[in-house]
Every structure is written in structure tokens, then in C-alpha cells.
Specification:
The protein is mostly beta strands. 0% of the residues lie in helices and 51% in strands. The strands form two sheets. Strands 2, 4, 5, 6, 9, 10 and 11 form a seven-stranded mixed sheet that branches. A hairpin with a 6-residue loop joins β4 and β5. 30% of the residues are buried.
């Protein structure tokens, strides 16, 4: 049974950093790409960043230069390092692999 567990969210002030983790089980993690998505209140879920099995990355323009996606295949874990957070980054963040979604972790950026 495939499981994706996202963690690392929380309430932070604008300008600080946060690192999200997504740990997979029940799947051959190293052969699949991983995506981080987010859904802000009242908005549709949107793609934030992706990383291929080979480590190539793509970012949406709104996070480019602030967010970094990475992966550790030995730990079956993908990360999303988020810097210079703004209130507009407030959302539930989800990880995605193949046809599977993690439960999401809430990030709230507020002063």
C-alpha cells in the first residue's frame, strides 16, 4: 500500500524559512518524479515545483528563487525548502507521486 506523508508545516512569520518533507512508503521512490502542490483557502490546487527521478527541477514563477525542491532517495523523502515566505504562501501543501497524494501539511504565514 502506497503512502505519502507530508510534514513540516506550521505557523510562521513573513520572511522566515520552512522545510517540508514528504516521505513515501510502498513505492519504488527512486524511479518516480515528485511534485509539490499547494491549495490556498478558496483557491484551486496549484503546482509549486517538481523534481524528476534524475533530479531535474521545475518551479512555478511565483516561487522561483525562493523555494527549492530536492530528494533523498535513500530516505524515500522529498523536500521543499521555502525561503522568504509571504502571506500569499499560506496554503495546504501536498506531495504527489504517480497517482498518489499525500494528506497535506498546512503552512500559515502571518505576522
Amino acid at each position: 500500500q502506497v503512502s505519502l506523508v507530508a510534514s513540516g508545516g506550521g505557523l510562521v512569520r513573513p520572511g522566515v524559512s520552512l522545510r517540508l518533507s514528504c516521505t513515501a512508503s510502498g513505492i519504488n521512490f527512486r524511479v518516480y518524479g515528485v511534485g509539490w502542490y499547494r491549495q490556498a483557502p478558496g483557491k484551486q490546487r496549484e503546482l509549486v515545483a517538481t523534481i524528476t527521478s534524475g533530479g531535474s527541477t521545475v518551479y512555478e514563477d511565483v516561487v522561483k528563487g525562493r523555494f527549492t525542491i530536492s530528494r533523498d532517495n535513500a530516505k524515500s523523502t522529498a523536500y521543499l525548502e521555502m525561503n522568504s515566505l509571504t502571506p500569499e504562501d499560506t496554503a495546504v501543501y501536498y506531495c504527489h507521486m504517480l497517482d498518489y497524494w499525500g494528506k497535506g501539511t498546512l503552512v500559515t504565514v502571518s505576522s
